[in-house]
Write a structure and sequence with these properties.
Length: 434
Amino acid sequence: MCSEDARRAVPRTDVVLADPRLQAAQRTLGRSFVLELVRQAQERSRSGEISPESIVDAAVAALPATVSSMRKVVNATGILVHTNLGRAPLSRAAVDALVAAAGTTDVELDLATGQRGVRGRGAVDALAAAVPDVGGVHVVNNCAAALALIATALAQGRDILISRGELVEIGDGFRIPELLASTGARLVEVGTTNRTRLSDYEAALGPETALILKVHPSNFAVRGFSEEASIADLATLGPPVVVDIGSGLLSPHPVLVDEPDALSTLRAGASLVAASGDKLLGGPQCGLLLGDAELVERLRRHPLARALRVDKLTLAALEATVRGPHPPVRAMLEAKLADLQARAEKVVTALADVTEAEAEVVASEAAVGGGGAPEVVLPSVAVAVPLRFVEPLRAGDPPVVTRTERGRCLLDLRTVEPDDDEALVKAVRRVGKD
Ligand SMILES: *Cc1c(COP(=O)(O)O)cnc(C)c1O
């Protein structure tokens, strides 16, 4: 059929939309969304790319599973907490909790009395139980928000003492000193890049000192001729000591010996701890504020707190993360090498007939990533395939994001959830067969 005829034969939009599959899609994806896909298919027919008879099939083929464009991705990078991949994947318990909270929920209502309740009390109580002796708990949007609230509420127009070794850039060009200064607090830098002593803080102390801030160097390490003042010593100086621990470990973890945790930091004498919820805690994006009851209450009641308030979904997922079974990040951290090896061998066996893939089990090194434990190397196991697999795997469904190393494409199993091993095999198989 010539294209002139093709244009004439393009069926009307309402006729196309009446197809039962597109009717069903309109209920789940919305009419305008489906309409746009139909228009695109009609356009392809007009240009002669497809026949008028295939318009419905083409529109159906283009239907996504959900209206949101954000997709599930398999993280085979070996970076446990990958900021570009949404940091911590949530536990099943956390997913269930946020689905339950998605509708109308009692986030801020006491069902027993019918009165307004503390917003997200369950999450706050769970954190308090996980960090014994903590005076107060508050949750904001992320760790950066926690720092902004602290600086605004406790140090606006006053001084924050901070070591020159702790002026950290957290990523994407965002720097903690600039964030603090943007609140109207004055930063007073003390010590040097590699050595800051208690006496440096002491010398800078004055009537304008609102607080002493320690920031964990979570994405770099200073080694060699270095020294820092301990929290216990800083706590003797008078002003509140606030510690940004970054990664959100609530208590010490044996694999991460140098990573600070909230419990130990508070026990050492810190007045307040700020941390992220979606790094090593393994929960949703949020910022945890833990510490002195009176200080936390001041933060909670500050006008800015309202602008940093977390969503009910976050609160539900956070509570489930803290109370429920260990989240995936924890499982990845603690996965045994022998188990990773067995999974890798199984994947390679399942790919034995895909000769193109040349799949092979190789030793690998995984990392925490995402601003945590910068020096920790996690021995791991990967499946290696040729470099040309990188892009098609990333473009696949589900997309698999890999790591390029030694001229090969590595699929590191430490960051792949075991339930996704089969998806991994299928993805490689599809690319290998192309
Ligand atoms: C990651 C990190 C931050 C920023 O945390 P967000 O939750 O992403 O805002 C701040 N401080 C430290 C030390 C960090 O590691």
